[in-house]
Amino acid sequence: MMQNENFAYFDEGAKKEIRRATLKAVAIPGYQVPFASREVPIGRGWGTGGLQLTLSLIGKEDILKVIDQGADESVNAVSIKKFVQKTTNVRCTEETSEATLIQSRHRIPEVPLTKEQIIVLQVPEPEPLRDIEKSERKTKALHAEEEYSGAWLKLFEQIMMHGSMTTDADHPVLVNGRYVMAPSPIPRFDNKKMNQSDALILLGAGREKKIYAVPPYTDVQSLAFEDYTFRVENFFGRSCRLCGSTNTFLDELIEEETKKLYYQCNDTSYCMSLLNEHDPIDALPKEKEVLKHV
Q: What InterPro entries does its record include (predicted)?
């Protein structure tokens, strides 16, 4: 830990304010709680909300995992990990099952989370009605009145134009039968992981100064129509070319030399764990090949 610095960077007053907002968010699932977003040494839009939640919650006994778009090794993930470790001296890991606190951008890990874990998701735009209504005052009124026809209309327009709902990521969800929530820019594939999750899910938007939450064992339903049901991304039976997995979220990549299309697990840690299980002796070269394409 850095000398002459507060544990986890923030002073205790700042941590308490963020924790109070977090407790309110947990008490009202899906509700966006305003908080006094602080300056942290990363650019806004790159995870300041998630980082503030992490710094306010982390303790000396915690084990931290940081991922960015499924990878532990991306520049953003490594930078955040180094900063938190430098100000706390906590142990970091790449194994999802080992971590007590997980900070993530754009993904929920493939390994099922447990009741002993907290996952913090970074959110660029927390308001699911922002495309319909630009006024913050009016969106608050719409939430208070449970007036979500605009969100439904947006999905209906997609069906009329394309024949199906075309939300690529951040597909809106209904939390605890009350609030429509933006689940951060996670793919539709991850929405189901929020429903009745064993782990506490916290979402932070630093630029927009909002915190919201999905407590453990809370109903989370993706918005859909009876005749146009919600569907996750379809990989048409394709598998990861490294570990052979067919039930994970896959990245579509192009081989530079041959220009051929191939698929690879987005969650690199999960992919490496499968490689180690299947072929522990020869796993290291394969792991390097995974990282090369991240």
A: PhnJ
**92 is an active site residue:** no
Task: Write down the pTM of the prediction.
Answer: 0.91
State the DSSP code for 28: S
Catalytic annotation, pick one of 47, 70, 204, 265 = 265
Selecting among 45, 204, 240, 244, the annotated active-site residue is 240
pLDDT tens for each residue of 188-219: 999 999 999 999 999 999 999 999 999 999 99
> Is 243 among the catalytic positions?
yes
Q: Active-site residue 265, yes or no?
A: yes
Active-site entry in 92, 204, 206, 243: 243
Contact 192, 173 (CB under 8 A): no
Task: Point out which residues pair with 221 in neighbouring strands.
Answer: 174
Q: Which of 70, 92, 204, 271 is catalytic?
A: 271
Angle between helices 268-278 and 283-292 (to 10 degrees): 160
DSSP string, 138-156: HHHHHHHTT--HHHHHHHH
d(CA 121, CA 258): 37
Q: Mind listing the pLDDT tens digit for each residue in 94-134?
A: 999 999 999 999 999 999 999 999 999 999 999 999 999 99
Residue 275 DSSP SS3: helix
Contact 10, 35 (CB under 8 A): no
Q: Which of 13, 30, 70, 206 is catalytic?
A: 30
